[in-house]
């Protein structure tokens, strides 16, 4: 196991401040590897775990360094859910195939999304508002995802989420929403298990090239829950385009987050 840890350190560019820290991290690595291998050998779930670059972190350390969603005051909304009357939805949809999703990024330890907020010198779009997607309603979320990618919040605190590698994630999900992601589609596996296609921000080495398929139609409040985010951009005469932009969020209070949505866009002046 020590040789395996040494190899993992080289592959992930990991260095420790002293021998004491190295021993500590080795023990955590060993415990995580044993858990991952035991889980996969049991083959009791439709998803797999893998030893990734987070393997020398305890789950608590990982959670504190990666998951920083902060709930703010409940947003007030003056208009009804615009997709409420959607009656026909395709069996599956993947906005990546429509050129609507930017490459997966790695947020690093910028848990609240603020680290790069001052690097943008010009706006690619202007934000004029947002709308609610009714929370804890998968039917409402599906109606919205039929029309565009949607930003959502999840509880990503578990070890299985930390080491998720592939398959449809059916692991335990709590109700303490701690991480912002983007639902970019949905579908069903060969065994009929329905899932959401969710874009994460932990780099492409995590999950399925940076994505996770999360079980849908679970009939519970836990798991994938829609945040009251959907941004409205004016200037419809310019055209329609998928854009990525920063915005100051009433939901995230003072933080800035990436949002990927189907909007009317405004060309930058620069």
TrEMBL record:
Membrane-spanning ranges: none
CDD domains, alphabetized: Peptidase_C1A (cd02248)
The organism's place on the tree of life at top rank: Eukaryota
SUPFAM superfamilies cross-referenced by the UniProt entry: Cysteine proteinases (SSF54001)
Keywords: Disulfide bond
SMART domains: Inhibitor_I29, Pept_C1
InterPro entries found in the cross-reference section: Papain-like_cys_pep_sf, Pept_asp_AS, Pept_his_AS, Peptidase_C1A, Peptidase_C1A_C, Peptidase_C1A_papain-like, Prot_inhib_I29
GO MF terms, alphabetically ordered: cysteine-type peptidase activity
Domain Peptidase C1A papain C-terminal: 89-227
One GO term of the biological process aspect: proteolysis
Start and end residues of each Cathepsin propeptide inhibitor domain: 5-62
Protein family membership: Belongs to the peptidase C1 family.
Protein name: KDEL-tailed cysteine endopeptidase
Protein species of origin: Salvia splendens
């Amino acid at each position: 196991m020590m040789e395996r840890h040494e190899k993992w350190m080289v592959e992930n560019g990991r260095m420790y401040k002293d021998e004491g820290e190295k021993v500590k991290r080795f023990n955590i690595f060993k415990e995580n590897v044993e858990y991952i291998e035991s889980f996969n050998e049991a083959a009791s779930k439709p998803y797999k775990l893998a030893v990734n670059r987070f393997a020398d972190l305890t789950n608590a350390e990982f959670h504190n360094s990666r998951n920083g969603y902060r709930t703010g005051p409940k947003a007030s909304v003056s208009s009804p859910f615009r997709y409420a009357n959607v009656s026909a939805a395709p069996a599956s949809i993947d906005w990546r195939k429509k050129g609507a999703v930017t490459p997966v990024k790695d947020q690093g330890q910028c848990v609240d999304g603020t680290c790069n907020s001052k690097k943008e010198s010009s706006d690619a779009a202007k934000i004029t508002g947002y709308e609610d997607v009714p929370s804890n309603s998968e039917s409402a979320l599906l109606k919205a995802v039929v029309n565009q990618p949607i930003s959502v919040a999840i509880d990503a605190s578990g070890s299985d989420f930390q080491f998720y590698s592939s398959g449809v994630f059916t692991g335990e999900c709590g109700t303490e929403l701690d991480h912002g992601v983007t639902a970019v589609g949905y579908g069903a596996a060969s065994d009929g298990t329905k899932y959401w296609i969710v874009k994460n921000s932990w780099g492409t080495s995590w999950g399925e090239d940076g994505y996770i398929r999360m079980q849908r139609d679970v009939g519970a409040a836990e798991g994938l829950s829609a945040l009251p985010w959907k941004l409205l951009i004016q200037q419809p005469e310019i055209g329609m385009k998928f854009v990525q932009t920063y915005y100051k969020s009433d939901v995230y209070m003072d933080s800035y987050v990436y949002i990927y949505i189907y909007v009317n866009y405004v060309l930058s002046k620069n």
